[in-house]
Amino acid sequence: MAPAQNQITSKHVAVIGAGPAGLITSRELRREGHSVVVFEREKQVGGLWVYTPKSDSDPLSLDPTRSKVHSSIYESLRTNVPRESMGVRDFPFLPRFDDESRDARRYPNHREVLAYIQDFAREFKIEEMIRFETEVVRVEPVDGKWRVQSKTSVGFSKDEIYEAVVVCNGHYTEPNIAHIPGIKSWPGKQIHSHNYRVPDPFENEVVVVIGNFASGADISRDIAKVAKEVHIASRAREPHTYEKISVPQNNLWMHSEIDTTHEDGSIVFKNGKVIFADSIVYCTGYKYNFPFLETNGYLRIDEKRVEPLYKHVFPPALAPGLAFVGLPAMGIVFVMFEIQSKWVAAVLSGRVTLPSTDKMMEDINAWYASLDALGIPKRHTHTIGRIQSEYLNWIAKESGCELVERWRGQEVDGGYLRLVAHPETYRDEWDDDELIEEAYNDFSKKKLISVDPSYYLENGR
Ligand code: FAD
User: Fold this and answer.
1) Which of 48, 68, 197, 293 to mutate to test the pocket of ligand 1 (most atoms within 8 A of CB)?
2) Per DSSP, what are the bridge partners of residue 138?
3) Which of 168, 315, 356, 360 gives 310 a disulfide partner, CB atoms 3.0 to 4.6 angstroms apart?
4) Ligand 1 centre from 18 Cα, in Å?
5) 3-state helix, strand, coil in the chain (%, to 5)
6) What pLDDT digit, counting tens, does each position of 106-135 carry?
7) DSSP string, 4-20
8) Residue 158 to residues 35, 137, 152, 212, 302, Cα–Cα distance (Å)
């Protein structure tokens, strides 16, 4: 850990966003003694987990003048991480077997996640720090501090100075659209998963779903319940791939990626198959976007790489006054928010120090070089699931907090392998009961549950 020579100081900090990252961060900042103001554009906490049947007015979200929604949650969504691993470490995401309004499954629905997030905000009295319906429109450095301009929903603007800003604005709202040869003249409907809610609009259609990770696997099966045929295009598959996937409706196929699309409505896959489709659904991920941030070109976003960022959190020349919580893509998401924000809080108070700007830049360049050496494309700079425990434990040691539990890393890694092998059943059939037991025994040892672990283990089966 970096030596803590400085006197501990309290800073006036702005947090942008009251999704899970902003809530967890504001709690950690206040715990460390900072004074915190959280800006939230919406009327309530929860961010991405506030489901709405509404979507952007442009189904591909390309029109800059479109009306926008924040959430990308679809009606049928269940978590892709087991609840024991998903919860914050000292506030576990426990099933409520005694409350019928709650979803007690190990991989619960999105409403259960929102309820948990609301419970968290209530338990730790986070709402008293939040200014709802207040959007941050500009953030810029001024004389070593940060000017934050905000605007309320009724148009009231404010211009304030903070000693630090932590950005927690989420990164699953600005769609990334794959370019497909010939798409401009292809006549069918196109939509990005950000705007997908329910399968009904695809009834009796032939649909192509591009992408086969968590959302693509879910959405293709959701649509297959009502569509005539669903064809998944996956760039991760070998060019010759053409497989029938087992679903009750017997109407789902896996292909390699799309080669070309044509004016007559046909879609040609790299495996040579040709289909005539009504709709394309892009499950092709999202872009980072910080429309409010003005750093005179210091921070750049290039092919999904936000640069330069030390350990995906601090831009060296602007640190520690500017920090990002929640950028990396990995499975242990809420605990990542917790560990990153403990580090940010400790650095801001002076309890932990950062290396020099040059040393941080050296570290960043070494990270980029290691990706190059492994042939990992730039767009995966922040996709660090394969080293998540190592990454989180490095920060945990740096800020002097508890390391990630062994069972948590193993559950998430094992769950990921089950997702890839059995996307249709991985949430309801598992082979890691011993890890669930370890998790609840751990909660019991830390006095985070008031009943014997057997209560959760027996009711959960
Ligand atoms: P968000 O939840 O997006 O919150 C950001 C907040 O910032 C929002 O409330 C927004 O209104 C606010 N905001 C943005 N800009 C401004 C501004 N300028 N001014 C004021 N407020 C602003 N993670 C898991 O752990 N388990 C899962 O099962 C899981 N499933 C997922 C499924 C899908 C389809 C997706 C897209 C993601 C999933 N994730 C999952 C990851 C998910 O992103 C995180 O769980 C989490 O919601 C991210 O939290 P966040 O606070 O970073 O962002």
Assistant:
1) 48
2) 149
3) 360
4) 9
5) 30, 20, 45
6) 999 999 999 999 999 999 999 999 999 999
7) --SPP---EEEEE--SH
8) 18, 10, 9, 44, 31
List pLDDT tens digits, range 252-263. 999 999 999 999
State the closest ligand 1 atom to the C-alpha of 292, by its place in the atom list counted from 1. 18
Q: Kindly report, residue by residue over 76-107, the tens digit of the pLDDT.
A: 999 999 999 999 999 999 999 999 999 999 99
Ligand 1 atom nearest the C-alpha of 79 is: 28
Contact, 19 vs 73, CB < 8 A? no
Cα(459) to ligand 1 centroid in Å equals 30
Among 401, 302, 317, which residue's Cα sits nearest to residue 352?
Answer: 401
Q: What is the pLDDT of residues 370-421, one digit of tens each?
A: 999 999 999 999 999 999 999 999 999 999 999 999 999 999 999 999 998 9
Tokens of 207: 């649909």
| Residue among 224, 279, 209 nearest 424 (CA) | 224
47 lines ligand 1 (CB under 6 A): yes
- Nearest-angstrom CA–CA distance, 37 and 203: 46
Distance CA 48, CA 114 (A): 9
75 CB near ligand 1 (under 6 Å): no
pLDDT digits (tens, 9 = 90+) for 3-61: 455 578 999 999 999 999 999 999 999 999 999 999 999 999 999 999 999 999 999 99
Distance 396 CA to ligand 1 centre (A): 22
Contacts of 89 (CB under 8 A, 6+ apart): 335, 338, 402, 405
How far apart CA 28 and CA 89 sit, in angstroms, is 13
Can you tell me the distance from the alpha carbon of 117 to that of 17, in angstroms, rounded to the nearest whole number? 14
Atom of ligand 1 nearest to the CA of 150: 19
Name the maximum alpha-carbon separation found in the chain. Answer: 70
Cα(334) to ligand 1 centroid in Å equals 10
Burial call 321-338: b when 16+ CB within 10 Å, e when fewer: bbbbbbbbbbbbbbbbbb
